[in-house]
Fold this sequence. Notes:
Two copies of one chain form a homodimer. Chain A is mostly helical. Chain A has three domains: 16-161, MgtE N-terminal fold, CATH 1.25.60; 168-284, Roll (CBS-domain); 299-468, Tetracycline Repressor, domain 2 (Orthogonal Bundle). Helices cover 64% and strands 6% of the residues of chain A. In chain A, the strands form two sheets. In chain A, strands 1-2-3 form a three-stranded mixed sheet. A three-stranded mixed sheet of chain A has the order 4-5-6.
Amino acid sequence: xxxxxxxxxxxxxxxxxxxxxxxxxxxxxxxxxxxxxxxxxxxxxxxxxxxxxxxxxxxxxxxxxxxxxxxxxxxxxxxxxxxxxxxxxxxxxxxxxxxxxxxxxxxxxxxxxxxxxxxxxxxxxxxxxxxxxxxxxxxxxxxxxxxxxxxxxxxxxxxxxxxxxxxxxxxxxxxxxxxxxxxxxxxxxxxxxxxxxxxxxxxxxxxxxxxxxxxxxxxxxxxxxxxxxxxxxxxxxxxxxxxxxxxxxxxxxxxxxxxxxxxxxxxxxxxxxxxxxxxxxxxxxxxxxxxxxxxxxxxxxxxxxxxxxxxxxxxxxxxxxxxxxxxxxxxxxxxxxxxxxxxxxxxxxxxxxxxxxxxxxxxxxxxxxxxxxxxxxxxxxxxxxxxxxxxxxxxxxxxxxxxxxxxxxxxxxxxxxxxxxxxxxxxxxxxxxxxxxxxxxxxxxxxxxxxxxxxxxxxxxxxxxxxxxx
Amino acid sequence: xxxxxxxxxxxxxxxxxxxxxxxxxxxxxxxxxxxxxxxxxxxxxxxxxxxxxxxxxxxxxxxxxxxxxxxxxxxxxxxxxxxxxxxxxxxxxxxxxxxxxxxxxxxxxxxxxxxxxxxxxxxxxxxxxxxxxxxxxxxxxxxxxxxxxxxxxxxxxxxxxxxxxxxxxxxxxxxxxxxxxxxxxxxxxxxxxxxxxxxxxxxxxxxxxxxxxxxxxxxxxxxxxxxxxxxxxxxxxxxxxxxxxxxxxxxxxxxxxxxxxxxxxxxxxxxxxxxxxxxxxxxxxxxxxxxxxxxxxxxxxxxxxxxxxxxxxxxxxxxxxxxxxxxxxxxxxxxxxxxxxxxxxxxxxxxxxxxxxxxxxxxxxxxxxxxxxxxxxxxxxxxxxxxxxxxxxxxxxxxxxxxxxxxxxxxxxxxxxxxxxxxxxxxxxxxxxxxxxxxxxxxxxxxxxxxxxxxxxxxxxxxxxxxxxx
Lengths: 470, 470
């Protein structure tokens, strides 16, 4: 294991201490959580501290998620201060806010100095205005300036993500110069780094040298001869963009530059892993109609994250009912229309969800873009036609077995075919259009697509029934 | 940028050559793709080579995705052999299989020797049996053995993921010994590495030293004094598990050990980034009822990935129709029941999808487990109750405005309440049960949950209507 935070190392597999804390899946055991709860209930601080002090900060954060707010309050009191500092960046937002309210500002100010500038800024960001001021004014000028600088960049930008600590070397240095420099002044360097950025006299990065390459090269070798071109990240670039570049080019770290092209910090891949997970989580939840549900939220937090989409869905469902309401004559004459019509809408909705999920994913990974949109759309329509014919035929068969009415089978088969082609079109075009309008396609697409497939489903089935069956 | 493959560096931002190949989002421009297509159509090999030779392998792989099979065949012919080798691991599975069939086995054998053992194995894995034999027998014994070893491990295991090249140092070495060793024999070391694993005389890893720490320490310092505990990965561990450990503990690399605890390789974070994306992609598609759709698949590939779930959905929808069919008396007497009933099912389906998506995500990130399942389920039921009362009241109001029938409003309000609680229960219990049975909850959950919400929706609304309204 190598940890890029200033955190203590995670427990080794051979280390007995945590064998009862973590199960084989690296999840805290129920037995361990119970021990913590018991100790907290008994107010046994020494027991608590001995249970907690050997945990990795990530495991402490997990533990917090398993506890109630009351137990968290006791645990925070007994966490060793350094471990508390390292746990803060690992906590889920909701829990972090709660914990921060409980930590005295002097202890917090001291804790934050232990962290890299990006982690410290991420914590300070969550403080209430007055608490933030008190904490910042209790910190040394240098650390405060670093945090304030970081918070000056837009949320979700490369500037917010980067750490200011970076190892830069002038172009004219040799491998030996660089190694001597690193050995000489460890203090100002990042806790861990993976690449040395070679800079020109204006402090613009002109190349990068992975430190394993530095180690392998003769001391007399000029850096300029072993450096590789770099992918510099602009300080105002969006974090999703940054994650894409890291993923695509397999980067471990990348220099961040300001508008003038000067080196101002670096981003390392461990931060990117978190962002990728966070963006994926957001996408998957948005597709399901859940707006940023914070982990560890209470009942009303969860309700708030879900009810907006249910209300929108109520609107589109009522719209679909209005469509059905246009066909009372048909429904009163033929009750089997009422029995079968949800099938057409349901198949259409599922088919639309499939097309739309694939489109949203492809847009996110940039496999779908203006260069191939038309071809992909064509493929989707063919898929819709083929699936429509297959499923339509199957359903027509079932309807015939059930009601022995050939014209009904024809009607429902055609309706399914129409709705599945509509689902393919809507599932692809809606996300494309939202993306073109610079909206997140994962947010609104499901509403539009279900609306379209419900409407087309009922309209085509009941409309065709009016023509064919009455 | 630092690239952990043996690939040439990606183009620098300051480098003019590719300004017309990539747009500001790092996506190939339509104009560039067109140039390639034109050159391929004209059979202009020199033009093709000059267009392609400065691309990063990841961009060549993207380009392949934009081309038709015919154009790909021409492009493969004119790719410089080294670039071809480095592009192979970047290609999507379907396209890689196609490309591999077109590359003569001697060229392929030579190309694979350029790659790290894990990348080479990933390519060989995709070869047809006879081609694989021809390629392997054209390779030097050492490289062949490495690839065969790698393929001996289960798919998706740590053994398949790891590279055998690793920097290990005996416990008694000093920093100086280690640096001299690295400088002395670069050949056998990985192209890039981030940590040195300290091993005991039995070759069991006992600690790790990040190379930036090595560089910072005095030459006389024994490794044993600066090493950190490590998280060793078992060679048969599942890749999803490995990704979880990397993410949780912010690892950059980790040693892989065999059953006897001996060091056999290492896994680096850049491979983990791909796995995280791949697992997320699978999860999101499975939740939408799309089984592993390979990128760049043709119409029938796409149909194959989607129609199974549509057929299952047809089954559950017909089941719902059978439920509706039990209430022909009610439907014939009161046509507004037919008009409103899809609303109850639709809201229930969406609510179930929300609960189930949150549960699947929480299971994947291990926030939901046996230690807190009961508490989470209790929270979900409360959410279902609250959402049910809210949405039920809204819908009752709409029904009253529309049909002026207080008992109808009561009926539909109650039905929504019942269905939303059922949705919360099903959305949480179904994934939990599948997970307990060691099934992937993302695969089958949507079927079960929609089945339950459709059935409960129609049954409660029409059933209550029979009691209250008739």
